[in-house]
Amino acid sequence: MNKDIERVLYDRNRIAEAVESLGKTITEDYKGKTPLILCVLKGAWIFHSDLIRAIDLPCDVDFITAKSYGMGSQSSGKLRILKEPDISLEGRDVIIVEDILDTAVTLSALIHILSEKQPGSLKIAVLLDKNLGYEKKVKADYTCFKVENEFLVGYGLDYAERYRSLPYIGVLKREVYQ
Ligand code: PRP
Question: Which one in 66, 71, 96, 126 has a CA-CA gap of 20 to 30 Å to 24?
């Protein structure tokens, strides 16, 4: 285990099971449709790439780059969009794929921005939901894991751009970010 990790919360097998199960649910829910599976870079890219392969439907993929944290451990409260999707969202069944719902700054801003592109439907799939009940409330349509308010890294999630490549989701030691 990486020396900066206090403990592993979900190992690669638990994650694979959860993503596989979510893929089956989405396959059922979108039967007969061609959803557009939109990855929010960077944190969601590993989850997204596993999830699209667990969905047994024709689907399109695209990417949007959004940042609210920068190099710190707390949300800046503002969202910067660095890359817009290439494919038109108009009339499409869009599923936003996010690694984590934390303060909800990112997803609440994204819903607003993406709704203006007039998708046919817009749903949210998150790997991790902290469900903190902050002032900005967003409810995910699909969630793999509900988690406590700890600093999590791995499987795409970073602290100051590090730890994204860990194959598990772990709790980062406090001394690393305090
Ligand atoms: C992280 C994460 C989510 C967002 C969730 O992104 O990937 O997009 O924060 O937090 P929130 O609910 O408090 O907004 P970040 O801005 O760190 O960029 P990254 O995806 O490139 O890591």
Answer: 66
Q: How far apart are CA 59 and CA 63, in angstroms?
A: 14
Whether 168 shows a pLDDT value over 70: the answer reads yes
**Pocket of ligand 1 from Cβ distances under 6 Å:** 40, 42-43, 66-69, 75, 98-106, 158
Looking at 50, 99, 102, 129, which residue is catalytic?
102
Relative orientation angle of helices 45-54 and 12-29, to the nearest 10 degrees: 50
The DSSP call for residue 160 is T
Class of residue 58 by CB neighbours under 10 A (exposed 0-12, middle 13-18, buried 19+): exposed
The model's pTM is 0.94
User: Sign (positive/negative) of CA torsion 34, 40, 45, 48?
Assistant: negative
| Ligand 1 atom at minimal distance to the Cα of residue 43 | 20
**Is the pLDDT at 128 greater than 80, yes or no?**
yes
